[in-house]
Automatic annotation (TrEMBL):
Protein name as it appears in the record: Flavohemoprotein
Region (Reductase): 149-385
UniProt organism field: Gallaecimonas pentaromativorans
Family: In the C-terminal section; belongs to the flavoprotein pyridine nucleotide cytochrome reductase family.
Encoding gene per record: hmp
Catalytic activities: 2 nitric oxide + NADPH + 2 O2 = 2 nitrate + NADP(+) + H(+); 2 nitric oxide + NADH + 2 O2 = 2 nitrate + NAD(+) + H(+)
GO biological process, one term: cellular response to nitrosative stress
Binding annotation for NADP(+): 270-275
EC number: 1.14.12.17
Length: 385
């Protein structure tokens, strides 16, 4: 455990960190990539350019400093980050590189605050936190390897089929190149894919939600073409049936509670319906009697993915479907259907743009839904709603 002196020294730096804001982590990433450019093959450089990753890292650093004497408060965040790290195949030795540049960044940006004693305290605190991550990630890697059809790190998969689901979304069906089984996953989890786009300078790793129920034979992801999306455009335009990619084992802490019988409401916008399709397919297979509602919003009908499949499942299992098209109905408003929602005991799963999820969470809270029954997944770096 950390000493009281170390905790006090770290907490004393909180005002300095707060005043600096994400400039701390922006400087950190610039420094790290300048000295260790090989890490550009690991980190999502698009999220670096957008500022989302530096902002997310700053929030994590600030939260750790704030709760350093009681890291259990951060257990959910640690689990979320550790899960994501396994899909990047983060290695224990990389924590030393990150720690070196983080401490150097603090000294360079605030030399008066980060004297030798304070820097030593932060070094001790960082090592303590890194140990927590390394231990948890080691456990996850071991579980992936030991699972039936599982593996550790990268595994070669072949693109078996490519199916357009809407104007901007295409599904990609992958089967293992070795012909073996593949490990099961929880509905709502994602998988890491590693590719080398022809238009990019580095290998790129992205995480995409698995969009079908687990079947032990292969995986399906459904990817929206983003205007400036290096990887999404590569997948849509260049990856051909028969090509091989590297996949990492399924991961993620956002998934359907299949042990519960509580009513479920799946709420999505745009491509955020991909994990919801996995949940809906799984519910139809494993819990056909469970009460489910499916609420989805998108720009218009031609951008509505999986509509026919949703209607097929709804007809077979009595699932109410409600759609909001922005060009016809405007934004999703739950007030008119509040008496039809299981506000008292239902589990609500949200996925879509951050603004959409924040608005829906706000509506649910206003309708009396307790926060612990609202679960959500943010694509890319985590963001609080």
């Amino acid at each position: 455990m950390l000493s009281a002196q170390t905790i006090a020294r770290v907490k004393a730096t909180i005002p300095v960190l707060a005043s600096a804001g994400p400039a701390v982590t922006q400087h950190f990433y610039q420094r790290m990539f300048a000295h260790n450019p090989e890490l550009k093959d690991v980190f999502n450089l698009s999220n670096q350019r957008s500022g989302r990753q530096p902002a997310a890292l700053f929030a994590a650093v600030a939260a750790y400093a704030q709760h350093i004497e009681n890291p259990q408060v951060l257990a959910a965040a640690v689990e979320r980050i550790a899960q994501k790290h396994t899909s990047f195949v983060v290695k224990p030795e990389q924590y030393a590189i990150v720690g070196k540049h983080l401490l150097a960044t603090l000294q360079e940006l605030a030399p008066d605050t980060f004297d030798s004693d304070t820097t030593a305290a932060w070094a001790e605190a960082y090592q303590f936190l890194a140990g927590i991550f390394i231990d948890r990630e080691g456990t996850l890697y071991a579980q992936h390897k030991a699972a039936e059809g599982g593996w550790e790190g990268e595994r070669a998969f072949r693109l078996a089929a490519k199916v357009a689901e809407s104007e901007k979304v295409t599904s990609f069906y992958f089967e293992p190149a070795d012909g073996g089984a593949v490990m099961a996953f929880e509905p709502g989890q994602y998988i890491g894919i590693k590719v080398k786009p022809s238009q990019g300078d580095y290998q790129e790793i992205r995480q995409y939600s698995l969009s079908a129920a687990s079947n032990g034979k292969g995986y399906r992801i459904s990817v929206k073409r983003e205007d400036q999306g290096l990887v999404s455009n590569f997948l849509h335009d260049e990856l051909a049936v028969g090509d091989e990619v590297a996949l990492m084992p399924p991961a993620g802490d956002f998934f359907l509670d299949t042990q519960s019988q509580a009513p479920v409401v799946l709420v999505s916008a745009g491509v955020g319906l991909t994990p919801m399709m996995s949940m809906l397919e799984t519910l139809a297979q494993q819990q056909p009697g469970r009460v489910v509602q499916f609420l989805h919003a998108c720009e218009n009908q031609i951008q509505h993915s999986f509509k026919a499949r949703q209607q097929e499942l709804a007809k077979a299992h009595g699932v109410p479907l409600r759609y909001w098209y922005n060009d016809q109905h405007g934004l999703m408003d739950l007030a008119p259907i509040r008496y039809e929602l299981p506000l008292a005991d239902g589990l609500f799963y949200l996925c879509g743009p951050i603004g959409f999820m924040a608005a829906i969470k706000g509506q649910l809270l206003a309708l009396g839904v307790s926060g612990e029954r609202i679960h959500y997944e943010a694509f890319g770096p985590h963001a609080e709603l």
